[in-house]
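Thread amino acids onto this structure.
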């Protein structure tokens, strides 16, 4: 049930300091010693990672890592998934449905190590703590490599502002890690073609990206995936000046900004429908023209973080905008 918010008790802005479907996965490629030189050593979120050979047993945490491997055709190397954000997209469903889940949320180190992985691949840096999948240095001492989706780095090496060049670089790096650079190159080429075909909205209508939260919405801010997707679709983010990937934004600030479009992230725990019901039931938000005219764009949570579905998500936003009566 949506909680009512007293119109005069609105929370101000607070600052804090990852359409057409994606191209189908290629047929399962074999690791290529000719195109990748092992061991690979590189910095990932400020942590030195060494990959001695193409990983064969991988635990994936978050949908972005799982879907990256499926898109590269190496989903058969996943021995367990955890903390998935939604169902696997149809184009990868057959391969994804066969992968066992080892935890609904972040797995413990014990559960992770029970899978005897040679790599733990996570979509959040916070997956690697002593209380979750394990400290990265400790895992390395046990012969288990760790890798964080680079766009999700927080402690170090966070992109100053996410671009599609960075998204494509991450796909290419994943291709190198798994010894399938040709598959990665094909995927990047297909995504660049899909990106070039996007027709952005004209006039730069303003938008709110509402990810989660009710009393204080958690919104897409100015340097991460939400900003990149909004810009690509021709929208102007009302929180673009907040230097964060996501941040809390009070209803008072949202109402004052009066966004033309409301981008609602859909998840099982905070659905787009619940967000729409709240917006319509609260007098302060019900008066917004975007609510009155139902100018809603819906994005699945799993495609709202940077990864292999980012181009697809931008294309979906642009396509949905074409069906709205924009001011």
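Threaded sequence (327 positions):
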């Amino acid at each position: 049930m949506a909680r009512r918010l007293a119109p005069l008790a609105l929370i101000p802005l607070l600052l804090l300091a990852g359409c057409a479907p994606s191209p189908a996965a290629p047929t399962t490629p074999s690791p290529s010693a000719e195109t990748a030189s092992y061991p690979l050593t590189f910095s990932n979120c400020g942590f030195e990672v060494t990959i001695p050979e193409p990983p064969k047993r991988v635990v994936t945490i978050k949908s972005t890592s799982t879907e990256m491997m499926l898109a590269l055709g190496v989903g058969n190397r996943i021995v367990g998934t955890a903390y998935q954000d939604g169902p696997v997209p149809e184009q990868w469903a057959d391969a994804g449905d066969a992968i066992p889940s080892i935890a609904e949320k972040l797995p413990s180190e014990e559960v992770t190590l029970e899978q005897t992985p040679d790599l733990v691949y996570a979509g959040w840096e916070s997956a690697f703590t002593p209380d979750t999948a394990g400290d990265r240095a400790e895992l390395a001492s046990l012969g288990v490599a760790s890798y964080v989706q680079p766009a999700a780095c927080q402690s170090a090496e966070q992109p100053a502002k996410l671009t599609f060049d960075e998204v494509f670089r991450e796909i290419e790096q994943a291709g190198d890690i798994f010894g399938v650079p040709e598959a990665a190159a094909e995927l990047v080429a297909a995504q660049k073609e899909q990106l070039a075909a996007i027709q952005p909205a004209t006039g730069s209508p303003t938008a709110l990206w509402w990810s989660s939260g009710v009393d204080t919405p958690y919104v897409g801010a100015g340097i991460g995936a939400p900003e990149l997707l909004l810009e690509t679709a021709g929208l102007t983010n009302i929180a673009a000046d907040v230097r964060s990937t996501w941040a809390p934004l009070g209803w008072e600030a949202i109402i004052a900004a009066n966004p033309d479009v409301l981008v609602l992230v859909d998840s099982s725990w905070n659905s787009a429908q619940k967000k729409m019901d709240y917006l319509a039931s609260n007098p302060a938000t019900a008066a917004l023209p975007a609510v009155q005219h139902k100018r809603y764009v819906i994005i699945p949570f799993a495609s709202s973080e940077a990864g292999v579905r980012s181009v697809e998500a931008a294309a979906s936003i642009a396509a949905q905008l074409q069906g709205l009566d924009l001011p």
